[in-house]
Amino acid sequence: MIKINELRIGNLISDLSDRTGFVKSLAWNKVAVKLEFSTINTDCDGVKPIPLTEEWLNKFKWERVEENRFFFDNNYFSIGISGRLYYMDDYTGVKIQHVHQLQNLYFSGSVSV
């Protein structure tokens, strides 16, 4: 389950059938998610985070430079991999497990795209 305060409009998440979509609107504990052919309106129990994987890092233009390290933005930001946990190696020290968490770093300006 995702808490409503973790989400922003535009975040990628999935429904309980693993269909990926983006957050279209948020209100109280309700979220509208635009899927490929429809929009669902549900509470936060009806959606789930997308696990951050190497495939998602590649889609976001992160570059693998070592076995367990990805770089972004001319090597200024790096993500290390420890088992299945990704973490920022820069000053933030943020642990990242899901796609929406990485997107929120973009939105906050911690990582500029």
Chart the SSEs and their pairings.
Layout: E1 12-15, E2 20-27, E3 30-34, E4 39-43, E5 47-48, H1 54-59, E6 63-66, E7 69-72, E8 77-82, E9 85-88, E10 95-96, H2 99-108
Antiparallel strand pairs: 1-2, 1-5, 2-3, 3-4, 6-7, 7-8, 8-9, 9-10
Structural summary, described in words:
By secondary structure, this protein is mainly β. The protein has two domains: 4-48, SH3 type barrels (Roll), CATH 2.30.30; 54-108, no CATH class. Helix content is 14%, strand content 39%. The protein contains two helices and ten strands, in the order E-E-E-E-E-H-E-E-E-E-E-H. The protein has helices spanning 54-59, 99-108; strands at residues 12-15, 20-27, 30-34, 39-43, 47-48, 63-66, 69-72, 77-82, 85-88, 95-96. The strands form two sheets. It has a five-stranded antiparallel beta sheet with strand order 4-3-2-1-5. A five-stranded antiparallel beta sheet has the order 6-7-8-9-10. The longest helix is centred in the last third of the chain and has 10 residues, at 99-108. It is elongated, with a radius of gyration of 15 Å. The mean pLDDT is 82.
